[in-house]
Amino acid sequence: MADAREVDRFEREVEAQRVAAVHRYRLLGGTPGDGPRTAPGTDPGTQEQIDAVARVAAAVAGVPTAVVNLIDERSQCSIGAAGAPRGTIARGESLCATHFTAGEPVHVPDASREPRYAGNPWVDGRRGSIRSYTSVPLISPDGHVLGTLCALDGEPRRLSAGQLARLGDLAGVLVALFERHRQAALNAQLAVDAEHQRAEAEEQRALAQALVAREQRRAEQLAALARASRAVASAEDPREAICAAARDLAGADAAYLMQPERGPDGHGRLVATAAVGFAEHAALSVDLTAGRALPLSAFRGARQVFVADVTGHPDADPALVEASGTVSGLWQPVLLRAGACTGVLGVVWRRRVPALEEALASVLHTLAGQAAHTIERAELLAQLRRASERDPLTGVGNRRYWNQVAAREVSDAEGSGRPVTFALIDLDHFKAYNDAYGHPAGDDLLREFASAAQRQLREGDTLARWGGEEFALALPGRTVSQARAVAERIRAAVPHAQTATIGLAAWTPGTSASTVLARADAALYRGKRQGRDTTVVA
Q1: Listed residues 387, 417, 447: the one ending a domain
Q2: pLDDT of residue 214
Q3: What is the pLDDT, as a whole number, of residue 221?
Q4: Spatial separation of the C-alpha atoms in residues 511 and 419, rounded to whole Å
Q5: Residue 519: inside a domain, yes or no?
Q6: Spatial contact of 404 and 470, defined as CB atoms under 8 Å apart
Q7: Taking each helix axis from N to C terminus, what angle separates 161-234 and 44-61, rounded to the nearest 10 degrees?
Q8: How far is CA 167 from the centre of its chain?
Q9: Which of 126, 203, 281, 398 is at 20 to 30 A from 79, Cα to Cα?
């Protein structure tokens, strides 16, 4: 058994080396391993020469058809032909693929009488009716069988030894053509690579000279950028720190960060998520469907935009100009590493700046790149935090989130004196529902109930999954009688004709969140003992 595995491994390695040799000649279109190809990768001159050899082969053999084939891991591709169109067939249908790797010529006067070939679709009439079949291997100088030169006839025919020898000579001519084509392609690629290297070296030399020339001028700004980057990385609110850094680096009067969001009207807008140097309630936003606005030019084009005279620019948005007091401005897109634009950093001068220094443009571009990374990281952390607080099945808060909310609501109630009521909700006979309909149906019931229950709540209410089929509910600002009305709506919304039992408990001064919930739990169990499908107040 071990010897058989070793033989199999060896045969696979040999075949992989053979296929690699086929592709080294660059005569097949497409990429190695991407399936059958129909377009050969030869240049017109080489193609004509291969076709010419095929015509000579047909004449030598006295047959109507001769084909030059290359065979890779999946297909047989005819790269030259006489009396037949060039094309590609699956290797499993190929007559040649049954024997070509042996590296020996094959001559079959009548394939229909040979058991090895009689069932092939090119012999039995499904794809063709080949009778006389002659195949000569195309062997590379390093011994790999690349494919075959085939002479085919629809009538039985026996070739002489001399004809077979001449076909062997033509196979050698074909391999020589392949070698010449490979060397020409290699030389062309080497010339292209050399030109690329020369151009790259020239570019690197020019870049180095430019960097040296700018080094002195940028030293102070780079130091300032480093300080700004540290401030952004350590800031509690990275967006506001980014705006402050941009304003300070540019010697500007104000700066803002706009990011896309969908407004209550359903339209997308660029909205300032942070700003420095503005009045507290400055309206800084632009409709994404607007035809013109300078922040939109930077956002849509993913390019830096500087305008010395903003009020006279045709793309200026009058409302934004008035709200920001912009005389000269710069808008820098904030691009993620994947190239997506996550926002626009706007820098505002309330005095005229005639031109933007190249060094400053570069520094602000760098700051925006760091800002993108910082914002992306902050949003990822926020997503992870939200995920850690969510029940993965229903999407509502989990028990950890509930503990935070419950403690906060009790603390707020203690400070403000406003009422707060907790509820525990249990889906009745949930185990029986699972047993009857299966766990996937049970999961669907939990998801649909959570969604239906949330539709009965107002902003500020919190629904969380307490465990299993139980949910906890916080209703701040509601007395227990008001909470009962909410509970009744929730019970009426239970999907799939199922029911729920709810226990309610109002917070009283001096009691903890866990105590209130324990009272709601006790009320819930009284309701279950009373027959379920009810709301019970502690």
Answers
A1: 387
A2: 63
A3: 65
A4: 13
A5: yes
A6: no
A7: 150
A8: 53
A9: 126
Annotate 113-171 with three-state secondary structure.
HCHHHHCCCCCCCCCCCCCEEEEEEEECCCCCEEEEEEEEECCCCCCCHHHHHHHHHHH
Is 362:250 a contact under the CB 8 Å cutoff? no
DSSP annotation of 289: T
Which tokens is 332 given?
A: 């820098």
417-434 burial, b if ≥16 CB within 10 A, otherwise e?
eebbbbbbbbbbebeebb
Handedness of CA 451, 455, 457, 461 (dihedral sign): positive
Q: What percent of the chain has pLDDT above 70?
A: 90
Q: Please report the pLDDT score of residue 34 as a whole number.
A: 44
How many beta carbons lie within 10 A of that of residue 346, not counting itself? 28
Name the pLDDT band for 11 (thresholds 50, 70, 90).
confident
Question: What angle (nearest 5°) sits at the alpha carbon of residue 488, between those of residues 483 and 494?
Answer: 125
Q: Answer whether residue 26 shows pLDDT above 60.
A: yes
DSSP string, 414-477: HHH---EEEEEEEETTHHHHHHHH-HHHHHHHHHHHHHHHHTT--TT-EEEEEETTEEEEEEET
Closest CA to 130 of 104, 146, 108, 106: 108
pLDDT digits (tens, 9 = 90+) for 150-169: 999 999 999 999 999 999 99
Run of H or E residues at 411: helix 399-416
The answer for residues whose C-beta is within 8 angstroms of residue 198's C-beta and 6 or more apart is none
What burial class does residue 269 get, using C-beta atoms within 10 Å of its C-beta: 0-12 exposed, 13-18 middle, 19+ buried? middle
d(CA 433, CA 412): 39
Residue 484 to residue 505: CA distance in whole angstroms: 10
Q: Are strands 132-139 and 145-153 parallel, antiparallel or unpaired?
A: antiparallel
CB 524 within 8 A of CB 471: no
Domain range for 19 = 2-183
Q: Which residue has the tokens 């850094």?
A: 245
pTM above 0.85, yes or no: no
pLDDT for the residue numbered 10: 86
- Provide the sign of the torsion angle of the four alpha carbons 124, 130, 136, 137, taken in this order: negative
Q: Where are the alpha helices (H) located in 69-143, listed in sequence order?
A: 115-118
Q: Which of 359, 387, 415 is the last residue of a domain?
A: 387
Q: Which residues of 358-373 are buried (b: 16+ CB within 10 A; e: fewer)?
A: eebebbbebbbebbbe
CA 353 to chain CA mean position, Å:
42
> 3-state class of 493 per DSSP?
coil
Overall residue count recorded for the chain in this entry: 538
Residues 415 and 336 in one domain: no
Q: Is residue 64 part of a domain?
A: yes
